[in-house]
């Protein structure tokens, strides 16, 4: 595997973050998995320069790029405190997004990003790290289970007009 560099994303990187976020989300959840209409509705809401810039300015959210030879091949978004998408009991960090460019999937980039998330959580001395994963994504669920995560709840997630279920998974630290 080529060397993966992890880089903290800054506000000046907002267009690059928007581009990688849009591309990886569409590749993961676009047709035929979801309708074009629902995916476009979600992307128009969540993946705009204004929204991404606002997320980057939130002191309780952190983004990291995974780069190989200076090319962005994946990224993570970590949330703490009130930036988390769900209220959870205890001191925790949420992995809201962990995505890898399709051409780099299967090359351990996701593992490097997950390991980075765990390092950040341990540095912040939180009790656990958690995430939501679509219940129709068995490969991702298996990946997190292999890394010690356990399902502890579920929540709904709106993708356009489609109400979907995310399994909430956590790992005690």
Task: Outline the structure in words.
With 173 residues, the protein is of the alpha+beta class. The chain is built from 5 helices and 7 strands; from the N terminus they run E-H-H-H-E-E-E-H-E-H-E-E. It has helices spanning 14-29, 36-46, 49-57, 109-123, 138-146; strands spanning 5-8, 61-68, 71-80, 92-100, 128-134, 150-159, 162-172. Strands 1-2-3-4-5-7-6 form a 7-stranded mixed sheet, sandwiched between helices. Strand 4 (92-100), helix 4 and strand 5 form a beta-alpha-beta unit. Helix 1 packs across helix 3 (49-57). The protein starts with a strand and ends with a strand. 28% of the residues are buried.
Spatial order of strands in the largest sheet: 1-2-3-4-5-7-6
Classification by helices and strands: alpha+beta
Mind telling me the C-alpha Rg?
15 Å
Number of strands: 7
Secondary-structure element order, N to C: EHHHEEEHEHEE
Strand content is 25-35%
Query: What's the average pLDDT?
Result: 97
| Through-space gap between termini | 28 Å
How many helical stretches? 5
Main sheet overview? 7 strands, mixed
Helical percentage: 25-40%
Stretches where pLDDT is under 50 for at least 5 consecutive residues are: none
Query: What general outline do the C-alpha atoms trace?
Result: globular
């Amino acid at each position: 595997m080529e060397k993966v560099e992890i880089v903290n994303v800054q506000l000046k990187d907002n267009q690059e973050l928007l581009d990688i976020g849009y591309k990886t989300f569409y590749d993961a959840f676009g047709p035929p998995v979801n309708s074009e209409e629902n995916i476009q509705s979600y992307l128009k809401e969540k993946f705009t320069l204004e929204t991404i810039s606002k997320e980057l300015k939130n002191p309780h959210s952190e983004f990291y790029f995974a780069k190989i030879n200076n090319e962005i091949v994946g990224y993570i978004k970590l949330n703490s405190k009130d930036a988390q998408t769900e209220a959870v009991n205890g001191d925790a960090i949420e992995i809201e997004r962990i995505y890898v460019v399709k051409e780099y999937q299967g090359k351990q980039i996701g593992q490097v990003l997950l390991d980075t998330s765990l390092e950040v959580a341990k540095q912040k001395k939180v009790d656990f790290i958690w995430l939501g994963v679509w219940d129709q994504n068995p490969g991702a669920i298996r990946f997190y289970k292999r890394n010690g995560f356990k399902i502890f709840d579920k929540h709904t997630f709106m993708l356009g007009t489609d109400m979907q279920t995310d399994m909430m998974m956590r790992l005690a630290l």
